[in-house]
TrEMBL record:
Belongs to the ferredoxin--NADP reductase type 1 family. InterPro entries: FAD/NAD-bd_sf, FAD/NAD-binding_dom, Ferredox_Rdtase, Ferredox_Rdtase_adrenod. This is ferredoxin--NADP(+) reductase. Residues 2-175 form the FAD/NAD(P)-binding domain. It comes from Microlunatus spumicola. PANTHER family: GLUTAMATE SYNTHASE 1 [NADH], CHLOROPLASTIC-LIKE. Gene3D superfamilies: FAD/NAD(P)-binding domain (3.50.50.60), NAD(P)-binding Rossmann-like Domain (3.40.50.720). Its cofactor is FAD. Its EC number is 1.18.1.2. Keywords: FAD, Flavoprotein, NADP, Oxidoreductase. It catalyses: 2 reduced [2Fe-2S]-[ferredoxin] + NADP(+) + H(+) = 2 oxidized [2Fe-2S]-[ferredoxin] + NADPH.
Length: 461
């Protein structure tokens, strides 16, 4: 497995289970470019959602199981080529996710003060890529603490669950955030943030958002916050009415929004304005963001969103683009630029127009950056079924490798981190948290993770 996020781990789980049923002797290597496993469960899921983050312990059980080995800190495409990896194992399963962001394609998108959601998310979850060991700023990465300290008014573009995560982190009280596992330096920066007003832009109407109801409702339950919804936006046209009748999530979301539209405003410190049918035309500013030019939008007969009416400006010191993620190419692996995915049929990778024996794909890099963690489980099963069918049909013939993986990594001078190291990091994070009355504090810097990996055994003297 190239990637130890949920999809790679779910393939490991399904493969070991199904192989045992059919009497196949399978060993599974789960590789990740980071020193620690769990992908977006650690570096995506919002810190104020501890129960979802605790899915980690289920993934941990699979990685700890006999026949499964975690190789952390091995970057495929850099430390080992895809060809070398393929030559050392019977089958490769690409499970490396979709870590980049979709572009808006509008003027000013790259101005200082305009950040993509993955940049903010990796920062607040403590991803080592954006927390360099010297405490500086990762090359090409915005200095998020500085942006947060100076920003009072923020525009968040997009109406999905990532947009909601970002809004919550921007407006939730420090007392509540202190109970999370956010790194110390992130908490510190959030303590001094100046954010007061957040404008969330949904380019389509309230019946078409990508929010799940539980996450939407949570916004209205936050302390010291008014959610502002224009009742006029909730008057549905004919098509929106049809959508609301047929889509239960849409109708539930509309009910939540209707409650908010009827609420009187209070003297709350924070306000979140939900702007429906509002599209960004340009991010404004010369040397940094000063606002977003927007327009009312509508949907064409062919389903395309188009601007209607006169543009106006929403002032902003910070713009967060939360319009979806995008998969990147892995050198040496097939890739479809138009979709940002690896081409496949039922998880069997298509290389140069034909099935490529021994190459499979799963998760976000297979189906695109949509779906909750559980979606990756059924997706992984589909891939494993294809793989085992290929063994049955003799398309995938096990054995006969020039250089088995473990010795190959050692010969390269690589020192992968395994699950023993993860358990030491885990213990160090819990200990760091407990020093400050928290359950856990994420170690954000690579150096800290490696030191903890070398540290004492959990429970040892
Ligand atoms: C911000 C955010 C919040 C989310 N919150 C929730 C939530 O609350 N609940 C929910 O159900 N779902 C949530 N999701 C969705 C969920 O996280 C995804 O469905 C899931 O993580 C996708 O799994 P994956 O394994 O395909 O990708 P990932 O989780 O991204 O895992 C990919 C792994 O591959 C590794 N990798 C990448 N390149 C290489 C390489 N070249 N060599 C080796 N390893 C590599 C990465 O380091 C990573 O560990 C969220 C998603 C995002 C973006
Ligand atoms: N708590 C949770 O369960 C949780 C938390 C976070 C993420 N996730 C999951 O992770 C996946 C990814 O979430 P996501 O929020 O990144 O993506 P998403 O669900 O695809 O939402 C993206 C949003 O961006 C909008 N958008 C796209 N292009 C745009 C443009 N050019 N201009 C303006 N708006 C644009 C989309 O609007 P249109 O619909 O008009 O295209 C949509 O509202 C989802 O499946 C999500 O459910 C789950």
């Amino acid at each position: 497995m190239v990637g130890a996020g949920p999809s790679g781990v779910y393939v490991a789980e399904a493969l070991t289970r199904e192989a045992a049923r059919s009497g196949l002797d399978v060993t599974v290597a789960v590789l990740d470019r980071l020193p620690v496993p769990f992908g977006l469960v650690r570096y995506g899921v919002a810190p104020d959602h501890p129960s979802i983050r605790s899915i980690r312990s289920t993934l941990e059980q699979t990685l700890d199981a006999p026949g499964v080995t975690f190789y952390g800190d091995v970057h495929i495409g850099r430390d080992l080529t895809v060809d070398e990896l393929r030559a050392s194992v019977d089958a490769v399963v690409y499970a490396y996710g979709a870590a980049s962001d979709r572009r808006l394609g509008i003027e000013g998108e790259d101005l200082p003060g305009s950040v993509a959601a993955p940049e903010l998310v990796t920062w607040y979850t403590g991803h080592p890529d954006v927390h360099p060991d010297d405490g500086g700023v990762a090359p090409g990465h915005p200095w998020v603490p500085g942006l947060l300290a100076s920003a009072r008014e923020v525009v968040v573009i997009g109406a999905g669950n990532v947009a909601l995560d970002v809004v919550r982190v921007l407006v939730r009280g420090v007392d509540e955030l202190s109970a999370t596992d956010m790194p110390d330096e992130v908490l510190e920066a959030l303590t001094t943030r100046g954010v007061r007003e957040v404008h969330l832009l949904a380019r389509r109407g309230p019946a078409y958002t990508a929010f799940t109801t539980k996450e939407l409702r949570e916004l209205g339950d936050l302390a010291d916050l008014d959610v502002v919804v224009d009742p006029a936006d909730l008057v549905l046209d004919e098509t929106s009415t049809l959508v609301a009748e047929q889509d239960r999530v849409a109708s539930r979301n509309l009910a939540v929004l209707a409650q908010w539209a009827g609420r009187p405003s209070t003297e709350a410190t924070h306000r979140v304005h939900l702007h429906f049918w509002t599209s960004p035309l340009a991010v404004l500013g010369t040397d940094r963001v000063t606002g977003v030019q927007v327009t009312r939008s509508a949907v064409d007969a062919d389903g395309r969103v188009r601007p209607v009416g006169e543009p106006w400006t929403i002032p902003a010191d910070l713009v967060v683009r939360a319009v979806g993620y995008r998969g990147l190419a892995l050198p040496g692996a097939p890739y479809d630029e138009s979709t940002g995915r690896i081409p496949h049929a039922e998880g069997r990778v298509i290389r140069d127009g034909a099935f490529s024996p021994g190459e499979y794909v799963t998760g976000w890099i297979k189906r695109g950056p949509t779906g909750v963690i559980g979606t990756n489980r059924s997706d992984a099963v589909e891939t494993v079924v294809s793989l085992l069918e290929d063994v049955d049909r003799g398309v995938l013939v096990p054995g006969g490798h020039e250089a088995p993986l473990g010795p190959l990594l050692a010969a390269r001078g690589l020192h992968p981190l395994g699950m023993a190291e993860w358990h030491r990091i885990d213990a160090a994070e819990r200990a760091r948290g407990q020093e400050h009355g928290r359950l856990r504090t994420t170690l954000a810097h690579r150096g800290e993770l490696l030191d903890a990996a070398d540290g004492p055994e959990p429970g040892g003297a």
